[in-house]
């Protein structure tokens, strides 16, 4: 019989290697899983087994949340722990797992502000964890990291075609009014896109979009907006946290990190920068240096 500790170790490896989650998320989810199993041992009066975990009911999870509340857990923290528990239960139960449906606690809205890198990653990870297929989760994870990591408009990201493959450390993007620019591509973002492509059941063709819907057509921006809205509600983030806001966060964080305004305008592809050949106004290698020095997740 597999012990809870062995199961949690497998869960940790699944998050790191299978889901490619950040160290922060792996640590938080594993800590919650350890705390949850320790509670269940007391709650059930015996060592926790896979069979018992699969048989858990709403009441068991509610009991755990009540136990945590007694330790002073806030609504926002409880929502995050519930998300971690759902991920753990899905891992234990596999694709056919029946996770007890439980409404999360009401979360408070903070003062609107640019989303922090950790919040952005938390949204992307929550969406990926709750997708109904691994390739869909990998797709949504890659799209959101691309919006924040390269400052793209959602229309620009979803318009990328197989002509952009194989990926390098830059992307050529066609923006508004057909203007083209070069944007840097973080290794983490490139790996996320490549991981999605490996899992995607639809063939990548030069003239077809990279990001696809379930039936193989172009991914709808409204679908991306909807899953972001659902995730930010569960995580207690501001209503201002939208896919387009990730582009604003990209700009805000680069400026805060010391990027000069002209380079930032080049990266964003703003029409006010130049009327022709926007991406050639500043040397692409210089843009990459500015980006790597200023972006909070570039190291």
N-C termini distance: 42 Å
Class by helix and strand content? mainly alpha
Average pLDDT confidence is: 80
Overall helicity:
55-70%
| Rg estimate, integer Å | 21 Å
Please tally the β strands and state the result.
2
The CATH homologous superfamily name of the largest domain equals Intergrase catalytic core
What is the CATH architecture descriptor of the largest domain?
A: Orthogonal Bundle
Q: Which range does the strand content fall in?
A: under 5%
Supply the number of helical segments.
13
CATH level-3 fold name of the largest domain: hpI Integrase, Chain A
Strand ordering within the main sheet: 1-2
Total of domains = 2
Low-confidence stretches: 109-113, 273-283
**Broad CATH class of the largest domain:** Mainly Alpha
* Sheet of most strands: 2 strands, antiparallel
Strand and helix order = HHHHHHHHEEHHHHH
Query: What form results from the Cα inertia axes?
Result: elongated
